[in-house]
Amino acid sequence: MASRKQLSRQARPARRKASVHGKDFLQKYFCHYLVLLTCPMLIPATLLGQNPSPLASAGYAVLPVPQKVILMGKDIALDGEWQLELEGGVKEKDVAVESLKEGLATRFHRSLAAMHSARSESGVIRMALKPNSLSIGQANDRDKAALAEQAYRLTLGPKTVTVAANAAPGLFYGVQTLLQLIRRREERLWLPEGEIVDWPDLQLRAIYWDDAHHLERLDVLKQAVRQAAFFKINGFAIKLEGHFQYKSAPATVEPYALTPLELQELTDFALHYHVQLIPYLDAPGHVAFILKHPEYAALRAFADSNYEFCVTNPETYKLLFGMYDDLLDATKGSRYFILSTDEPYYVGMASSAQCEEATRARELGSVGKLLAEFVTKASNYLHDRGRTVWFWGEYPLTPDDVASLPSHIVSGEVHGNEFDSAFKKRGIRQLVYTSTEGEEPLFPDYYILPSTRRLHPKSPDRGRVTEMFNRISFTSARQQSDLMGTIVAGWADAGLHPETFWLGYATGPAAAWHPASTSPAELTNSFYDLFYGPSARNMGRLYQLMSEQAQVWDDTWEDMASSARTPIWGNSDKIFNPPKPASDQTLPLLPVPSAGDLAIGYDWKQENSRRLEIATAALPENDELLDLLYANFERVRDNRYSLEVFLSIVELYRQNLEMILDLGEISDRLKAAQTAAGKGDGGEALATLDEALNTAAGIQRRRNRALQDATTTWYRTWFPRVAEANGRRYLDQLDNVKDHRPVRTVDMSYLSYRELLYPLGDWAARTLEARNEYARAHQLPVRTLKLNWKDTAAAGN
Prior knowledge:
Layout: H1 23-37, H2 43-48, H3 54-57, E1 68-77, E2 83-87, H4 95-108, E3 124-129, H5 144-149, E4 152-156, E5 160-165, H6 168-181, E6 183-185, E7 188-198, E8 204-210, H7 218-230, E9 235-239, H8 260-272, E10 276-282, H9 288-291, H10 314-329, E11 336-340, H11 358-364, H12 367-383, E12 388-391, E13 410-411, H13 417-426, E14 429-437, H14 464-474, H15 477-480, E15 483-490, H16 502-513, H17 520-532, H18 539-555, E16 558-561, E17 568-570, E18 575-580, E19 583-586, H19 604-607, H20 609-635, H21 640-678, H22 682-714, E20 724-725, E21 728-729, H23 753-757, H24 760-777
Parallel strand pairs: 2-3, 3-5, 8-9, 8-15, 9-10, 10-11, 11-12, 12-13, 13-14, 14-15
Antiparallel strand pairs: 1-7, 4-5, 4-7, 6-7, 16-19, 17-18, 20-21
C-alpha cells in the first residue's frame, strides 16, 4: 500500500501506510471510501464550482472566496487622501489597523491620514468592533460562536469603506480581504462597490511547516506566519525535531536550533496575527532523531531499530513528558499541541527483555488498544497543562478502539463513515487532512506530466490543488463527522524548499473557509495574483513547467537497490528479516572501451533512446521556464525570493537533462573511437576518447555549479546544514525505517545524491586506463586526468 504522502491527494482512511496488522482492514475501508467519493451524489458537486465567483468575474481576486458578495456593478476610485476612523474600541495598535497601514504602504505606496472626528471631503475607511452585531449563515462547524469571532462585513461605498466585525479576528480578516481587493489600473487604485459578508465554514485552517531537516531563520519563520495570516490561515503547526533546544533531551539538539525564547517570540508573533503556533512532536514512531542517540537507545521498542519507542517502558514517558514541558514552556499562549502518533507500525509487536509490548496488548485486547493507552497517557498529560491535543487517529486503531480514547482530543484526519462515526459518538472532533507536498522531489505535483511523456508509466492524477479542493469540499466526513477544521501538510521528507509549498498552503485552507466555492483553477489563479502581484505574467504556465520538469527529473532515472546506505529494517507491511536494501536511483552504465582495440560491448545511446528523447523534448521547455522566470523577475512585486528559489531548482532540472544528453554524446564518441581504431587511425581514436572524458568532466562542473547555486540561494533563509556548530554535533545516522532524502547527507549534497552515486568517476578512470594502454601500444601520447567525481567543490578539468 502506498504511503500517506503518496496518497495525500486521494481519499483514503489512513494518512500514510497501512500497518503490519491492518493491511486488509485498511484496504476494505480505502475501497469503501473511494466508492463514497465517486458516488453519483458527490461527482456533480465537484462541477458546481466551475463558474467563476462574482469577484473573479469582475476582475478581482480574493482568497479564500467570500461567502456572500453583492456587487453594484461600479468601481470605486481610491483617489485623494483617505482617512481612518476607529470605532467600538478598535485601537491604533490593533493588528488589523497595523496590517491595513502596512499593506497600503508596501503594496500600493499609499498612506492613511490620522483619525479625525469631523466630516471632510476625503474618503473614510472605518473600522468597527461590536460584539454580536454580525450574524453568520450556514456552516458545517457546530461551534458557531467560534465562527462568528472570525466573521466580518465589508461595505464598499464611493466615499466610505467600512470593515465591521464581532471580534478582533474578524476585523483582521476583513482587512485582509480589503487589501486583496484593491486593484491598480491606469495608475489609479480601485475597489468594487458593494458589500461582502463573510465567515468560515470551519474554525481551524492550519498548515504544517516541517523543519525536521532544515531550519529557517527566525525572521523568515515570522514572515511565513504573516503570509499565512494574509490567506486567513489561523494554525501554524511546526515540527522542529532537533532544531529546538530541549533542556530535557540535550543530546537531540542539532548544531542550529531555536532557543526557547526564540520559539516563544515566534508564538507571540503568531498570536498577534490571530495564528496559533502549534508545537509538533512524534511518538511512538518517527523518532529516529531521538532514538539514534546512544543515550536513548534503551527506549527503543526493538534494539536494532531507532524508529519506534517502547510504549510500555515508563522511561519513555519520562523523556517525552520532559520534552513536552520544554515545548509548552516555549509556546505559552498557544491552545493546541500535535501529539503526532504518525505511522506507529510496530506497536504491540515487541517481546524482549528490552521491551515487552505484546503481553500488554493481549491484556488490553488488541494492539489498537495499546496505542490508545499511549495516546491517553500522553494526551492527558498535555490536556492537564491546558492544551487541546491533536493526534493522528490511524491504524493500529480500529473503530472499536476509539471508545478507549479520551474525548478531549482531536483527530487530525478523517477515515470514512465507520471510523468517523465512532469518533463522533465518542465526542472526538476531527480535521480534514490533506497535503500540498508528499514525497515528490524538487517541486510538488501541482500539474501532472502526461503518461505519454514519461519513461515509466504512472497512475493518472489531477494535481495537488484539485485533490485538496475536492477532499476538503466533498468529503463524506461533512455528514458523518464533527468537523472543526483542516490541516494542510507540506512534508519536508524529500528536502524541498518551503517556498514551493505556498500554492497549496493558500488554496487548501481556502476550501475549508468556503467549500465548493468556485473551481480549483480560480483559486490557483487568485493565488498567483495575490502572492506575486497582478503584474506577474503566465504564472500558470510557469508552475506547470516547474511541476512537469520535476517529474521529468525523477522519471528519467531508474530505481535500484542501494549499496551505499543502511538497509531498511521494516515497512508498513512487516519487519524485514533480514533488512532489505534501501532504494536509490541510477542511470544505465556507460561501456568501457577495451585496451586492445577500444571496442565497446554495447551501444548506450541506442539502448537509452527513449530516455534521450524525453530529455531532448524537455530541454526547450526548460528554456521556456528560464525565460518566464527572468521575465517575471522584472515584473513581480511581491515574494520575489520564491522565484529565485525556483531558478535554483530549474538549474538542477537542467543539469539532469544536460547530463543525460551528455551521456548520449559520450556514447557517440565511444563508438567513433572504436570505428577510428578499427581503421588504424589511433590519433583520431584517442582524440575522440579525450573528448568523451572532457565531456564527463563538464558534467561534474555543471553538477557542482547547480548544487552550489542552490545551496547559496536556499541558505539565504536557512541556517547551514553542517556537522558541527555552536558547540553541538549532528549525529549522522539514518532512520532504520524511513528514507528521508535530506538525511542521506549532512549537507546540501542530498540534492545531487544520485549523481554522486552514479559511477562516472569510475568509468572515467577505467576509460583513461584503457586509453593510455592503447596509446602506449601505438606509441601515442598518454594523458593524465583525475576526475574526483564525488568532490562537490571541484571545478573539474
